[in-house]
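ok trying this again, last paste got cut off
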Amino acid sequence: MQDDTLIEEHRFDLTEAKQYDWLHAIDDMGEERGYFENLGEDHSAILTDAGPTLIVTFETIDTIRKGANHTPLGWSLVDGSEEGDTGWSNLCIMAHKETWFRDDAVYAYFDRLVDDGFFEEYDQVVFYGAGMCGYGAAAFSVAAPGATVIAIGAQATLDTARAGWDRRFPEMRRADFTDRYGYAPDMIEAADAVYLLFNPAVVDDYMHASLFSGDNTHHIPCPRMGQYIETELWSMGVLPGLITQAARGELDRVSLFQALRARRKHLPYLRVILDRINVSTHPKRVAALTRYVTSHWSAPRFRRALDQANKVLEDA
């Protein structure tokens, strides 16, 4: 056990610490929570052992360090709110760089978990990730049959024979996506339910999503939410609720789409809508949107658009 004072010192230093010191602090904090284990040079596993529901999060050091707390997203999900902890466990698989988790050490770690019956100890298992980490969540969910998978903007593979059209990640074109835990659409077959969230306007993400199929797979288009849907869901306060529903076995297409209705009260989303409506050709639509926004928020941009729409309507 680490001394509580040491843990608090690590928390305080996380924002300014260099990567080596930050990793050392996360190592200490991980040991306090359950365990921290290095998986080769490029990955780590951190277990928070707290209860019979397990949230498996795939994360990267880069995204963790850009977060408000500089600690894994999984910790925020299971540590609950001011009312107390959720009583859930978290297994955070952390990539130190953009690897898509294509590493023998990661394969061996999941093999060991399967051999040890690790996932069988939990009543409910949820795999979560976004982008590269969404690929990881889908690909490694095969280790826990019956799990729920939530993957945002996930790649199916970066194998050039299957997804040569995706040229966004040239540094990964030599990586092997044909061996174990490789083709994510094949790895989700044993999952109870898979929810793929993507922006259909991001063509590559749309095409990756189309490679996933099966009765357990639910495609959830999120139009006009940009390339970083995860960030928007956090900003709207929606993501923790989705994980909670999944952890309780209550998530389905209906509840997910209901949760996404929160974007109707999310100013960045409403700004995108406004940008797509031409006030000269659709003044009534602009007026309706801006009237709604200005009745709820002080939004100068929407107020100016409302004035323009009213002027067009008056002159018509």
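PB: full thing came through this time. Confidence is low (pLDDT under 50) at residues 1-7.
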